Structure formats: C-alpha cells, structure tokens
Automatic annotation (TrEMBL):
Its EC number is 1.1.1.18, 1.1.1.369. It is an enzyme of class 1 (oxidoreductase). This is Myo-inositol 2-dehydrogenase/D-chiro-inositol 1-dehydrogenase. Transmembrane segments: none annotated. It holds the Pfam family GFO_IDH_MocA. Residues 135-255 form the GFO/IDH/MocA-like oxidoreductase domain. Keywords: Oxidoreductase. The keyword Oxidoreductase applies.
Length: 336
C-alpha cells in the first residue's frame, strides 16, 4: 500500500465539509491534513470534528503546510479561479468544485496555470461517477443505443425552496445548477460538438423575486453537430425530493439514468404503495462523490486525470454563458 496522499481542504462550508469527511473517513489512501476557511472557526470546527491537525483562515498558510500534496477547492464559485491559480503555483494537485470559472478568460487562466505547473486538475462534475450514469455512458460507448438523437438531463433540487433569493448570485441556475447537466449532456454525446443553445428561464418558485433577476426554473435546448438535440431543465423546488435524471435515445435504443427513489423498498398499505425519495445531494451521491475523490487521489499520484478536466469545465461553461445570452436576448445563440 503506497503512502496516503496528503490532502488540504479549502472552503469548509456545506459541500467542503462533506468532501472533507469523505477524505478523512471514506478513503483509505488519503489523509486530510489541513483545512482553510476565512470564516471565523469554520476550519477549526471541522478540523476538530474530523481529527485534522491544522486549521487556517488564510489559503496561503494552508498551501505552505509541510507535506501537503493535493487540495480540494470548495469555496463559493466566484473565488474558484483565483484560489485554483494560487494552488497551481504552489505545485498542488487540484480538485475544484464546479463551476471552475465564471468567464472563459478565467477558465483559460485556470487551465494554463495547472498546465504550466504540471499539476493535475479535476473538476467536480460528480454525476459522471454515479453508477447509473457511468453505466449509461458505457452502454453508449458499446454502441448499444446507436447514434444519439435525443438527450435529456434534469436537475430538480429538493423543495420546499428555503434559501433567501437575495443571497443567490445572478444566473446561478446556469452557472451552478445546470452546469452539471451541460457537462452530462456533452459527456453522454461523445465526440459531438454543441452548435447552438437556446434557453428560457423564469422565477416560478419565487415570482416575488423575478424583478431582481432571480431565476429558479429553466429549460435549455442544445443542438449538436451530429444532428442530435438535447434538453436540460432545472427547478429549485421539487417537493417530492432531489430528482436527477438523464436519458439518451438513439438509433439503436435508449438508456435512462437516475431514480428519485431512495431504494427499491416499496411500502404497500391502505393508501396504496409508496417509496421514500432522496432529499439531499450528499445522500443521493455518496457513492459518486466518493468515487470522484478516489479518482482525484489516484490523479494526485499519477498526474493522469481520469474524470472531468479543466477543458471539460470550460466546455460546460461555454453553454452556461450562451444560456445567459439567450435569456437576455430572447434568441438562440450559435456557438463558435
Ligand atoms: N458538485 C456538487 O454536487 C456540489 C454541491 C454543492 C455545492 N457545490 C459547489 O461547491 C461550491 C461551494 O458550495 P457550498 O454550498 O459548500 O457553499 P458554502 O457557502 O456552504 O461554503 C463555502 C465556504 O467557503 C468559504 N470561503 C469563502 N471564501 C473563501 C476563500 N477565499 N478561501 C477559502 N474558503 C472560502 C466560506 O466561508 C464557506 O465556509 C460552489 O461552487 C457550489 O456550486 C457543488
């Protein structure tokens, strides 16, 4: 057994805490040795909980921690690129949560920084690691659905929606939610290039915030150069659970992926039959999140990224940016 990879966590919020726990408790070949978060006590509290030796409020201090080999970046999206560049310059292997960047210039800057430092860069499109999605892609690769013609990917976050819309950055539905679906659609249509994007979006969950530019519901169509057409959709408040699905229909058949039911246990009683549903991403995707970080740990050793790369993050971002333009101009946007 090789020596465990020494990992640092940057950002100890909701998903960072979960990723930290994955490294500390669910992976055998990695050690979580340091955590950084500027919020008072955020890093220290998580470090206490996970028995991690060092907590910092400054990212530079974490990057200087002796023996640190790899970092997980789980800060809010607007900080990703700068922190990523800083970590690359410090020579660390990088796992960055999505979106890696909010502009193409920043995406290029991130990719260039990792390349010139010679460090692996993997991005947090965790659906690729979910067993159903991975098997769907394997079936497509094996030619079992023929040539893809219609693709579908959807994200319905669990309701009731309880966040304060005023604290959610503009265009989050594209930058942070549907970006997963864009990566999934690109990945499930291997070799095809997106050529046109059209999006509609609205505030249907919180119409009282529509005037502020808040959007909680969106439908996107993406046309590809192999003739196939994809639809992505999102809504922030599915009252029945956390509903993530994908579908690829082709000349030879169809694959469907994702199930909102927690398990195959079905209750039959006087009301009929019923199932429990997933309520949180960190429950639904434990296997996928763990597999993606196991892969990152391997990449930290081999410098070979098996999962989504900086270029993949850029490709998904390009669609998100086209969606924003499409909603703003109310027209389809050709991709160059
Ligand atoms: N892949 C997924 O399924 C998934 C799920 C949830 C969130 N995310 C992504 O992860 C990122 C974080 O989301 P979250 O819900 O955990 O947010 P959060 O607000 O709960 O946590 C962010 C944390 O980062 C800290 N922080 C802020 N600036 C920092 C900096 N410069 N350096 C270090 N730490 C900093 C904050 O104090 C906070 O503790 C977002 O980009 C989000 O889109 C991905």
């Amino acid at each position: 057994m090789p020596k465990p990879v020494n990992v640092g966590l940057i950002g100890a919020g909701r998903i960072g805490s979960f990723h930290g726990e994955t490294v500390a408790r669910r992976l055998v070949d990695a050690d979580l040795i340091a955590i950084a978060d500027p919020a008072p006590n955020a890093a220290a509290n998580l470090a206490d909980k996970l028995d991690v030796e060092s907590a910092y409020t400054d990212v530079a201090d974490l990057l200087a921690h002796p023996g640190l080999e790899a970092v997980i970046i789980a800060t809010p999206a607007r900080f990703h690129t700068n922190v990523l560049v800083q970590a690359a310059e410090a020579g660390k292997a990088i796992f960055c949560e999505k979106p890696m960047a909010l502009t193409l210039e920043d995406a290029d800057r991130a990719i260039a920084a990792a390349r010139s430092a010679g460090v692996p860069l993997q991005v947090g499109f965790n659906r690729r690691w979910d067993q159903a999605f991975a098997e769907g892609r394997a079936a497509i690769d094996a030619g079992k659905v023929g040539t893809p013609q219609l693709l579908r990917s959807l994200t319905r976050d669990p309701g009731p929606f309880g966040a304060d819309p005023a604290r959610i950055p503009l265009w989050t539905i594209f930058y942070e939610t549907l970006i997963h679906d864009f990566d999934t659609l690109l990945w499930l249509n291997p070799g095809a290039q997106p050529v046109e994007v059209s999006a509609v979006a609205d505030a249907l969950v919180r119409p009282d915030f529509r005037e502020n530019g808040f959007l909680d519901t969106a439908v996107v169509t993406v046309r590809f150069d192999n003739g196939s057409v994809a639809v992505a959709e999102a809504n922030f408040s599915a009252l029945y659970g956390y509903d993530i699905r994908g579908e690829v229909f082709g000349s030879g058949g169809m694959v469907t992926m994702g199930d909102v039911r927690r398990s195959s246990m079905t209750l039959f009683d006087k009301n009929g039959l019923s199932n429990d549903t997933w309520r949180r991403d960190t429950d639904h995707f434990v296997q996928g999140y763990t597999a993606q970080l196991a892969s990152f740990v391997r990449a930290s050793r081999t410098c070979k990224v098996e999962g989504p790369t900086g270029e993949d993050a850029r490709n998904a971002l390009k669609i998100a940016l086209a969606c924003i333009e499409s909603v703003s101009k109310k027209q389809a946007i050709p991709l160059r």
